[in-house]
Amino acid sequence: MLTTSRKGILIQQSPAQIFLASGETARIDCKLSTSQYIYWYKELQNGSLHRIYQSYESASAPHEKYSSIVNIPAKTFTLIISNVQRNDSGVYYCGVAVYVHPNFGNGTRLIVTDASEPSLSILVPSNPDDAELPPVIPLLCLLSDFTPLWSAVLWDTGEQVSEGQMDTGAIDGNGVFSVWSLMTIPSATWNQKTNCICTAKESSTGRSINATVSKETGRVSYPI
Q: Poorest-confidence range of 26-30, 125-129, 205-209?
């Protein structure tokens, strides 16, 4: 449960993250120390917040996508998102305004995916053939459109198998959730044309997918 407060208002928002398939129903809870209403927002790609709904202690306006449940004794407001689709993926916030000062929960990330298997790719930095290599080569493994069962990512650089450095992930404009795994290898190892393998494993079945790159095949570039 995530908690934030300002000007004496305490907001507890949960859960932090939800994975759902298309057609399912999302529920996001916000508990307030005091308030008779709450606003609901969805974060846009430019970082701004778009108000999508308002829950009242007495009654809330009908909406084809959003509805709410209000538990007055518990001071809990629940946003219900019906029939979720890919474009509903995003980060949602609850918030109130007290004496002009806005107060928000810490957000709930909703991820909608119907993919039975994620996609996996490796990006390497571009480097002219005659240019001197840096001391270490950064490699990025991109895991996209996955469920929590596929969240384990491993690197095999020929010398060791490790997890690399994972970011917290992001949702793109198409509603696809992706995470990066960063691995760095010595340039000497890269010059030996070593195959570097990134593998994602499904915890429940043991299935795995992988992507491989080496100095000879690594022609895809990303900005550094």
A: 125-129
